[in-house]
Each structure stands twice: as C-alpha cells, then as structure tokens.
Amino acid sequence: MSCECNCSYTCDECQNRIDLQNQIDYANERMEWIVQSILLIAQDLGVNLPPEPQKRGQSSEY
Questions:
Q1: Which pick of 23, 37, 41, 46 has the fewest CB atoms within 10 Å?
Q2: pLDDT of residue 18 exceeding 70
C-alpha cells in the first residue's frame, strides 16, 4: 500500500506507525519515571541498589 498522506490527511498505515511509536515512547517515559522514583525512594531510605542494567540496541527509528 502506498502512502497517501498530505497536509490534511494521514493514511492508515502511517497513522498506525505513529500510534505504535507513541505507545513505545510513552512506555519508555513511564519506565524511566519508575526507575527514577525507585532511586529516589531508595536514596531516602538509605538502601543500596544493584547497578541498573544497560540498555540494549533500542532504536526509535523505523
């Protein structure tokens, strides 16, 4: 299916890709918020946490 997007219309294929990317971005932002919240709580309680795992090959581009 070819893209038919213009200034006033977004084709279904592109809209699905946009929706998926928005879901991925939200999930990543929420995870970062959770991590930061845990770190702040642990800091306030004086709890030592193991090192955070490294992110692997994530790409937000298609």
A1: 46
A2: yes
Residues near 21 by beta carbon (within 8 Å), at least 6 away in sequence: 60, 62
Which residues is 6 bridged to in the sheet? 9
Beta-bridge mates of residue 25 = none
CA 45, 50, 51, 52 dihedral sign is negative
Q: Encoding tokens for residue 31?
A: 């995870």
Q: Do 40 and 47 form a contact (C-beta atoms < 8 A)?
A: no
The Cα–Cα gap between 15 and 19 comes to 6
